[in-house]
Amino acid sequence: MSISIERLRSLLDRLSPDHHLLPAVEQAYGIKKSGMNGEASLDYHLHFIDGDFQVLNGIRLQGDLYIFQMDVVLVTRSRIFLIEVKNYAGELIYDGDNHQMLQIVDGQQKAYADPILQAKRQTVQLRKWISQQTLPSIPISSLVVFTNSYASLDSPHPDVIKSSYLPFKINAMKPLPDVWTEEEMDRFVRRCRSFHQPENGDVLKRFGIREDELIRGVLCLNCPRVCMDKAHGGWRCPKCGGFSKRKALERAMHDYLMLMGDKVSNQQLCDFLRINDRQVANRILKSLGYKKVGSTSNSYYLIPTD
Ligand SMILES: [Zn+2]
Asked: Is residue 188 part of a domain?
């Protein structure tokens, strides 16, 4: 699971049901999840493509002005396929004349930006980026692929297709002469990975949510948003009576890591877990085995990120 979706998950778990931004966070989570499902389902179809190629997923690179993100990049020695992945449901109509994508779900129509133009912009940026890497210029073909097998697609455009058709379309394309050596292809893939810009991690900042708006405490793993009580040797849920020795605590610390970062002081732990005894907090920090940094007065602990 990618880190950005885990951040949204932790935020969702710790927003009260009546928080005014809950719908916005739920929507962002839904979009992210749907996109990931789309890319995962595309993996299956990629197996049917002939020849040697390498695949890059969700690479974000710094362009001249903006960061550009590419859903799937298929790299061969003769050309690159830049694949824009959409996992929309319902009835989908590509309207190239008016540069929009229409989606009809339950009789409701919604318009999206033209995905072909989106892919074309990425192509321009990637071409430029490749020349800055002093790699020989290579043909780039952009495709828009719809991965939701339950959706119907009406597209007159040959490059706006469903994912099941993707391998057959690529296999039927006229072969081009190789322009990159094996080494150049590897170098491109390596550099994409090393220059990849992960999405801004600060999910609280992104939504404008303050730390004190979050539900604090060790949450029950069975009851959503219910804070457990410290009990001997673990934590107990006041609602379902469930007991957790460690798992619920580890989950809470994972939420802390996703929302607040990897540094935690005794005071911050007390605040986040709703503990009013520094000695108890100390014992918890020791039991978690975090590395201590700094002197006694302003020391903090590092939460491992793996
Ligand atoms: Zn419970």
From this structure: yes
